[in-house]
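Dear V.,

Thank you for sending over the compound details. I've combined the ligand you provided, pyridoxal-5'-phosphate, with the protein sequence from our construct and run the structure prediction for the complex. I'm sharing the raw inputs here so there's no ambiguity about protonation or stereochemistry in the SMILES, which I know was a concern on your side last time.
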Amino acid sequence: MVGATLENMDIDLGIGAVRAARTVLADHLPATPSWAAPALTEAAGCQVVLKHEEVQPTGAFKVRGGLNLLAGMSPEQRRRGVVSASTGNHGQSLAYASRRFGARCQIVLPEPVNPTKARALRGWGAELVVYGQDMETAGAHARELAGRGGARFVHPADEPALIAGVGTLYLELLTAHPDLDYLFVPVGGGSGAASACLVAASVAPGCRVIAVQTTASRAAHDSWRTGELVSRPNRTAVEGLAIGIGYATTQALLRRHLTDFLLVDDEQVRVAQLLLLTHAHTLAEGAGAAALAGLLSMADRLAGTRAAIVVSGGNASPAELGSVLGARPVAAA
Ligand SMILES: Cc1ncc(COP(=O)(O)O)c(C=O)c1O
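Below is the predicted structure of the protein with pyridoxal-5'-phosphate bound, written out as structure tokens.
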């Protein structure tokens, strides 16, 4: 697909869908806090607001999308169930929502599996299938399982109901802090960043949305830069961001409002995780600290501004926590 096609792509999704999702979610989730984190100012070079999605019942922002999707399914569709591929948080979102709405939920996990996320998935009642070494292989298997059993295949990012659901976090954030100059958002498949673009364009057009991905899994970044949906090696240890291909719907939305797309390496993400722990009493998994890693990489250009970062999740594995504690603190810390 070429850039012109992405730019002209007809997407049946606007701010109205995000506002409607907020009404749906009001019955299920309270708004999450967004606190100023003054202890981060020295390292960040600007005032920082943290949007805390690690406090969600599943430990990640994705739960908003699953609830919105399941809420819109008919009783018959729920009976047939949902099936999807996930490294954990998107799966937990569907599992949590399926439990709420009485649906069957099958999740295909690629290896290596984060044991913290697998345990939580089982706890929400999901049936787990471990298959393949990456999300693309796991996704193909999930699609096949759905075809066999009549369940609804849920794409991890190219699903308007998921994008509208996760967009509610940005509606909360930008309503509470309408004067932000920057908003940093982590990207795997891009549902979160696409929704941030959608909401910012409507609610806070002066706020620049900056996406962040890792160099070891840079498909979304390269898709945005080239205007084509490209595949790239998918080797990051930051599993929430481990996607090897650009997705059409999210890329089309990113093209409309994203200001810039940064790459950070896995070590920068670990350093940001450590900083959140020591300076903001916040336990983030790698994907949940990637936005801060992106912000730190351009700290010298942020003087005098106000920036928000989304702590998108906190489901770090024990091995990951070990490597975070071994990371080198940032100089200003
Ligand atoms: C904690 C966390 N942050 C960020 C992301 C990236 O989200 P998206 O795939 O919507 O870009 C994920 C994806 O699973 C995640 O789990």
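A first observation: The CA atoms of residues 271 and 327 lie 6 Å apart.

Warm regards,
I. M.
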